[in-house]
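Saturday, quiet lab. Running sequence design on the structure tokens for the scaffold JK sent over.
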């Protein structure tokens, strides 16, 4: 168990992200990371008023064990944290103020459920270690927010995200951007 600076920083996987007790430097907008967890992972980072996004593949190589995808994911998170525009601010516990991810309750198969669980465990442990609040957002909530329909298909989500001015390369990146839109428009990014 890692010590916490403030009891309100307890991370959750349900409900709202608790308020951030540490001050945001220079009244800068909050830095928000949104993830569509999976082997092909969509990500969106809102940092210093700008949005960056993409998708990453964490498939293990032919001669690697299944755990390599989670080690690569953790290393990618560490590198992302280091590249944040606020990473060099003295006294800042973490340049990321909140992490949101797509909360999937049902999977098509057992392997997909296990892989998602591994990514979720890696992410939650990484956030806990750095006292970064994190929250899962149900799939239907995300889709309803960007398309108006909780059961919208992938094409509708991509079209809705493009209508908001983004150009996702695939459905994973579109999902991460949709989570970011939900987080910034319903919670102002961090609550």
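Result came back. Writing it out in full:
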């Amino acid at each position: 168990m890692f010590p916490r600076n403030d009891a309100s920083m307890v991370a959750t996987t349900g409900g709202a992200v608790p308020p951030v007790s540490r001050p945001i430097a220079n009244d800068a907008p909050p830095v928000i990371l949104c993830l569509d967890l999976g082997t092909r992972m969509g990500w969106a980072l809102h940092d210093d008023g700008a949005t960056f996004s993409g998708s990453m593949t964490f498939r293990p190589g032919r001669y690697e064990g299944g755990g390599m995808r989670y080690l690569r994911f953790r290393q990618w998170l560490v590198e992302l944290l280091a590249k944040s525009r606020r990473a060099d601010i003295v006294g800042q516990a973490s340049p990321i103020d909140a992490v949101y991810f797509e909360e999937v309750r049902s999977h098509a198969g057992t392997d997909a459920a296990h892989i998602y669980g591994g990514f979720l465990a890696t992410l939650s442990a990484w956030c806990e270690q750095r006292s970064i609040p994190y929250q899962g957002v149900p799939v239907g909530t995300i889709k309803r927010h960007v398309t108006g329909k909780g059961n919208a298909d992938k094409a509708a989500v991509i079209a809705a995200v493009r209508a908001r001015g983004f150009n996702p390369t695939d459905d994973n990146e579109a999902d991460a951007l949709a989570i970011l839109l939900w987080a910034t428009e319903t919670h102002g990014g961090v609550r």
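Notes for JK: The radius of gyration is 16 Å. Confidence is low (pLDDT under 50) at residues 1-25, 89-93. Ask whether to fix the surface positions before the next round.
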